[in-house]
Amino acid sequence: MYQVHFKEDVPYDDTYGLHTGDPQQDLEYEKQRQHSSLVPEAVQSFLQFFQKAINEQDIFEIENHYENGWNRLTERMYRTDPWPEAELIEKIVNHDSLFLILYKELYYRHIYARVSQGPDQDQRFKSYYNYCDLFNYILNADSPVPLQLPNQWLWDIIDEFIYQYQTFSQYRSKMSKKTEEDIEILKSSPKIWNVHSVLNVLHSLVDKSRINEQLAAYNNGADQETVLKIGGEFGASPMYKMLGYFSIIGLLRLHSLLGDYHQALSVMTNIDISKKSSVMARVPECQITTYYYIGFSYLMMRRYQDAINTFSSILTHIQRTKNSLQQRSSQFKIDMISKQTDQMYNLLAICVTLYPVRIDESLSRQMIEKTGEEKRARMQRGEKGAFEEAFSFACPKFVSPVAPNYGAGPVNLHKEPMNHQLAVFLEEVDQQALLPTIRSYLKLYSTMPVDKLADFLDMPPHDLRAELMCLKHKMKNSQSDSQTSQEQNQLEVDFYIDGDMIHIADTKIERGYADYFIEQILNFEKLNKHVSALR
């Protein structure tokens, strides 16, 4: 990265066409004129107004430029091309260091998301250094920095920071197409996008804002004034508070990508996602991401009922708010939300296959539509390939926390974390291969001899007893509420073995049809009386 330095006392409008007789200074002017010609006037004007809004801390204008202006210019002029490099706009924004950091955050994010060839190795490094500059500016201050950004932008910063770490971890594990020079640079730069650096940033933002202490106090019924006192001067700042909150969600995501699901759920201790007024609801992408990773962590921890509840809640919410989401978000974000929604439908299908409970009828129809009737039927038959397809599509892109062995030759290891998590999941599927069939037989009887069921399944009685114990174990599902976690059986049948007999009982008591009709008749009579009174 190079920097061009200009005289600070020369006004922006007077630089072009100005000759001083000093060859070095004239060369600088000529270079700036060439740079300016590469930046369209519309972009120059937009950046100057954007910078003005940030310097004046006009949140409404910042949000307008961030959500609308940037996206409109991107679609019109930089759909698949990068925005001008920061060096080309330095003079345009009067070398405003903070604005240049924020601009580069948008610049590199655009390269990752929209530029066809994606970032090269040098751009990945520079983006990391820019995040270091941004977070150092925020975290190293003795008092809250004079900067406020819209919640959406703050979430996007944390979200993109983790995404770029994720893609770098996968990039460095793809060794087959790297040059020796690239490999040497990676070997000599072990701290670039290091997992400890990423974790340190997220934990530092959480600690600086004292967001966990604030959330704990809020959950215990403390008033707003008490919560603000607990947060201190940094916790009282909206930017630090929101960055801390979004960093908790970032830690949930990062630990899930690393396969540490217990730790992923632990960081969410003070966030109650069931509250409709939750802070995350202010940013739809944050809310959807949170539910996705919580639900996935529950799934991998075999807490199927919790996973089903989590996925059902957010998918129902998405169904209800689909129109407003499309109006508020750019097409790129709509596509991302749509993909993550499809992933959650596949994960929900996995959960209700392994742990069959009733879900909302409209949600069930939508799930079958998204996953396909054929795949759903294959999963219910216990076909391992169907589970593998659904899991591979719906799971996050796992990463390894350590760098690969650069001396192992041109081998690609980026799929190893995914293959490991898939193997763990398929082992659970294997253990449950016969359980749907056994469960279907149990539904037909109130008592039945072990030998008879063994004959149906064409297996020795002692093997059947082992399978029955497995079913008993799998039916006891860990389910949590706001206070406790306990083992519960949510399935439709339960059983116990007494000697050579299996005793089966329905665990769900269905309301009789007669009760339903009586209730409706009474409602009809009340309605009739009401109508008669109106006459």
Q: In words, what does this structure look like?
A:
This protein has 24 helices and five strands. 65% of the residues lie in helices and 5% in strands. A hairpin with a 4-residue loop joins β2 (476-480) and β3 (485-489). The protein is mainly alpha-helical and 535 residues long. α16 runs antiparallel to α19 and α22 crosses α23 (461-475). The strands form two sheets. The chain has a three-stranded antiparallel beta sheet with strand order 1-5-4. It is globular, with a radius of gyration of 29 Å. It has two domains: 119-143 and 151-429, no CATH class; 434-506, Arc Repressor Mutant, subunit A (Orthogonal Bundle), CATH 1.10.10. It has helices spanning 23-37, 41-55, 59-77, 86-89, 97-113, 121-139, 151-172, 180-187, 195-209, 211-219, 224-236, 238-257, 261-266, 284-300, 304-328, 331-354, 361-371, 373-380, 384-394, 416-431, 435-442, 450-457, 461-475, 513-534; strands spanning 447-449, 476-480, 485-489, 493-498, 501-506. The longest helix has 25 residues, at 304-328.
Biggest pleated-sheet summary: 3 strands, antiparallel
- Classify the secondary structure makeup into a structural class: mainly alpha
Mean pLDDT: 85
State the total count of DSSP E strands.
Answer: 5
**Tally of contiguous helical segments:** 24
Radius of gyration: 29 Å
Q: Write the H/E string, N to C.
A: HHHHHHHHHHHHHHHHHHHHHEHHEEEEH
Shape: globular
Helix content class: 55-70%
Instruction: Walk across the major sheet and give the strand order.
Output: 1-5-4
Percentage beta strand: under 5%
Q: Stretches where pLDDT falls below 50 for ≥5 residues? A: 1-19
Terminal-residue CA separation: 84 Å
The total domain count is 2
